[in-house]
Amino acid sequence: MATEYVFISDLHMGGEEQLTTLDCEAELVSFLADLEECGGDVELIINGDAFGLWEYDDVSDRPDTASGPTKLDRVIEDHPRVFEQFRATGEAIDITLIPGNHDYDLACSQSHVDRLAAYNISLEPAIAITREVGDARIWIEHGQQHDSNNRMPDWGNPDALPVGYFVVQRIVDAAGRYSDRARGNWLRDIQSVTPMEEIPRWLFSNYFYREMSPVLRAIVVPLLVFFNITMVYLVGTVLESAGLVPRWLFTDNPVVNALGVADIVLELIIAINVVIVAILLLLAVPLWFFRRDLKHTLGRFGVMLSGVRVGQGDEPFLNAARDVFESHPDVAVFVYGHTHRASLTRWGDRVVVNTGTWLKKLQHVETWFARLPGIYYPTFRLTAVHIAAEDDRIVVEFDEIERDDSADLTRFQRLVARHPPATNPIPARTVIDPDGPLDVPTEEDE
């Protein structure tokens, strides 16, 4: 039996065409090789979404409909280095995998158990599993059952699929197939856009910075950059007309007049922006009434104008952890993934751990010029969690493999983008006493 457990999740290996690219393959192989070298009483547990099986549309794992290779076979064929390293690492330590929502197919057919066993991976097709650590237990799950869009209504039934499956099939799968038509192959990163409400804004951002005609962008960018100058100019001319400021500040500014041709270009840009502002003001009033009436109409049908937010934050998962701690007093650590946000929450001598993701993360950042569209800054936060007993205590350690991927941005994006704020720090080492108290905060405290 293992005395130390290592957790990773949400690798999302596989998918149609461009989606099958695994950006962190080198880091993953190196990580597995290090575990092979360590050996000993260690168990690697991949708690869900190791594979992106939902992201295929032309193969099936159901015995009565399968034609050609199964989805899992496709993943293995596309990532031979990773699976050969799984085989080698699995000879030195135990490797256990549980299904998530994107690889839910693993829970629907016994054949996957034998297929993965060939690479020394033990598949446990359960929603949640536990492991002993010292005198306590670790509760392990992927977490999709606490997400209303990805909850499995009948675990193990291949036909009982949540709404998230159909979203992936219609949107994510299509993005993978058409990504090579985009400039920069950016569409394949659609799975890194969270929550899903961000997708329209992400699409517009990439259209503006990558797909828009360079000639059109060269015209639009100065208009947007000088939009704030236009607003200041308009206010200034009104103040000049009212006699509150001298005319040389705006209308007859000697510095601007000395610019020659540049002055003419600046005045042209300001004139165009003035026209745009006037049009927006004219449309603002009727659009406000239209939006107000539409909101009331949709309200009668029980639909909110802003739509249903998919990103739920961590609250449903923390609530699930509370229930587990209260109903299973011997559980000291609750481990989950799914949200792609690595975190550690401590309640007295109990710990809730999110194992994060090995996918690229896209973070919306503003530009240095307020009117330009925001940019989705790419980064990685490759996380492994180590849990072991130490004397009468339990130690939870976070191991982060940093990788900068800002090179994915275009030169213009790097020029105008602000640097994203630092991610929330996670304690590298947390020590708890499994016999200590559970101190769950109240809703008022949160």
TrEMBL record:
The cross-references to Pfam families, in alphabetical order and at most eight, read: Metallophos
- The region called Disordered is annotated at 420-446
| Record-annotated Calcineurin-like phosphoesterase domain positions | 6-145
Gene Ontology terms, cellular component aspect? membrane
- Tell me the SUPFAM superfamilies matching this sequence: Metallo-dependent phosphatases (SSF56300)
User: Which residues are listed as membrane-spanning?
Assistant: 215-239, 259-290
Q: Which Gene3D superfamilies match?
A: 3.60.21.10
Q: Name one GO molecular function term.
A: metal ion binding
Q: Which UniProt keywords apply?
A: Cell inner membrane, Cell membrane, Manganese, Membrane, Metal-binding, Transmembrane, Transmembrane helix
Q: Which InterPro entries match?
A: Calcineurin-like_PHP, LpxH-like, Metallo-depent_PP-like
Which biological processes are named by the entry's GO terms? lipid A biosynthetic process
Q: Which residues form a coiled coil?
A: none
Q: Does the keyword Cell inner membrane apply?
A: yes
Q: Does the keyword Phosphoprotein apply?
A: no
Protein name, entry field: Calcineurin-like phosphoesterase domain-containing protein
Q: Which organism is it from?
A: Halovivax ruber (strain DSM 18193 / JCM 13892 / XH-70)
